[in-house]
Amino acid sequence: MSRLIKDRRPVAEDPWHSLGADEPPPEPERAVIVPAERFEAERALWLARPGSLGVRIGPHCGLEPVLDVLDRLALIAIEFPTFRDGRGYSYARLLRERHRFQGELRAVGDVLRDQLFFMARCGFDAFELAPGQDVEAALAAFEDFPYTYQPAADGPATAWAR
Amino acid sequence: MYRYTDIDQRMIEARVAQFRDQTRRFLAGELSEEQFRPLRLMNGLYIQRHAPMLRISIPYGLLASRQLRKLAEIARRYDKGYGHFTTRQNIQFNWPRLEDVPDILAELATVQMHAIQTSGNCIRNVTSDHLAGVAADEVEDPRPYCEIIRQWACFHPEFSYLPRKFKIAVSGTEPNDRAAVKIHDIGLYLVRNEAGEVGFKVLVGGGLGRTPILAETVREFLPKADLLSYLEAILRVYNLYGRRDNIFKARIKILVNALGVDRFREQVEDEWSKMDRAALRLDPERIAHFRSFFAPPAHERDAPPLDPALLEADRNFALWYRHNTVAHKVPGYRAVFVSLKGYGRTPGDMTADEMDAVADLADRYSFGELRVTHTQNLLLADVREADLYALFKALDALGLACANIGTLTDMICCPGLDYCALANASSISIAKQIQAKFDELDYLYDLGEIRLNMSGCINACGHHHVGHIGILGVDKKGEEVYQIQVGGASSHDASLGRILGRAVPKAEVADAVGRILEVYLRERRDGERFIDTCRRLGSEPFKQAVYGAVESAA
Ligand code: SF4
User: Fold this and answer.
1) Selected residue of B116, B155, B281 to mutate for chain A interface (largest A Cβ count, 10 A)
2) Could you tell me if the CB of B474 is within 6 A of ligand 1?
3) pTM of the entire structure?
4) Strands A4-6 vs A9-11: parallel, antiparallel or unpaired
5) Count of the separate structural domains present in chain B
6) Does B272 share its domain with B138?
7) pLDDT tens per residue across span B339-358
8) Are the C-beta atoms of B249 and B203 separated by less than 8 Å?
9) For ligand 1, is residue B87 a contact (CB within 6 Å)?
10) Average pLDDT rounded to a whole number, residues B373-378
11) CATH code of residue B84
12) What is the ipTM of this complex?
């Protein structure tokens, strides 16, 4: 069982292979998530592969590496080095609301139950929970609040509708 | 004041349920201390010197009498029978048990109160002018905008894990700023442009602590409709580019300083120009809706003025009237301070019995509402002049009519060593030392308007940098000593004080303050306030008075 949640449901097996910095590429058809630095260095190679392509973005590198290829990416993973680093929330909203990214937006790293509600509001639809997190229990977090006080990637503020 | 809808009520109840579950998981060992910490802080809960400290939100200082009664009840039931009002217009309890906090929050929710975002690296309680809606000098009442900002900031999904805490203040008047706007991360003044439209002047990057900086102007005029989108642009630039590697460099003031205000402004304007502003636009109907909550209460028409004979007959009343009440824009009314700074009191503290009694007075004399001032007093904002004498008598009987508002002993003082885990020094005992030395009201009146601010450590919760006289507790090899500065101010003409010299021992603080005051009394020119004399003379004569000519030359 993976620790992955997609569209608010647990995912038994992650269809994506998350590639390390020095790991050799998997077979060409395999869906792969490439670290941003590696993607930047070998763009042509990765874009030419037949398999689905995803890029993993760290908080320091920002959105630069992916902005001009968004329609070629089926997934963007945004890394939370610690759950206290909130940059990923802004990246997610920018990708969804400004750049209209339609693919899977996956939170990876120190992803904990108590931040899922906010992450989902910012446009994440997939969550790779940190080790030790209880996937089933975490699903409840999407229901933490019944309304919203501000517009975000999930639409206008529902508390504003008088 | 703002009235909760069913939606608002369900939201704070959902928050209680969420925190109850988080506390349960923490106590069961499912959440680590590190994971729980930001969650409890965003519910106002600190782990302190003696016990946890719970900081409860009083949005922009506005409080209904039933809410104050609930605070009294909580003080009795879960604490030691008192609470402490802070410079952020909130209240803190110093003795609750961690296990009880979910129940306390549930109690608070029954009167539409909470502790949401009173700490943590998120957007904190919005503060404002305690005379909002009362003072004749405001361009417009700032409170509707405070409430609009409060709701927008509440559970903001993008800005709940910022590099550091984030404080916003709004004032309806720039020239008479009573909200210390310039020491906030974002400060907003309601202003009128050349076309006569009302909007906001936007300042960014103020803050005290170890690197005190006054906010700089980022935009001279922002239309009201764009308030939230502009705030969102500033917060986004900060969230993405504020430093996260060093807690002492993480506030937005450091980012603004590093970039320079012009480049910071460019980044904000660039972000703003690309945003979907329509989603956050405040249309006139929405603004009118929020303004409707802050319509003036039903003041009596042609309310009779104060009977001047009462001032003649009772000197204490006359002094109280002069110092503890201020003009109201409606004829026949005054705003009345409830002084929490009387002789022998801990500045800003209030007992449960006092809370109940003052809640009754608010019901009787001021439409059931109160305000907390950033100088740690309470205010009854709408009192008929004809009721002033009765109110004075009632407050006097409670020991809450000390006629010292605006004087030296109306000090701002943080909890210090008595409660705060970070403190170096006992600010409260210094406050009492100063009260004891300067207990002559006539002397205080002769000194006139003076702001004395005191912090127990460099975090500067007591705003010592912007006191006309500022006192900072520091630790010198295990000894409590006190640094003294003069020349600070927090209003429109805000300035940071200058440190006079080496820190003085605890026993000598009040004497040192006395020598500073002597310089003023000797040197002042006609009509000059302490701060004016300070600005004219510079810090040198004060330095000499405290340390003697020889040492200050060294
Ligand atoms: S200034 Fe320091 S001692 Fe005083 S309350 Fe703040 S952190 Fe505590």
Assistant:
1) B155
2) no
3) 0.95
4) antiparallel
5) 4
6) yes
7) 999 998 999 999 999 999 99
8) no
9) no
10) 95
11) 3.90.480.20
12) 0.97
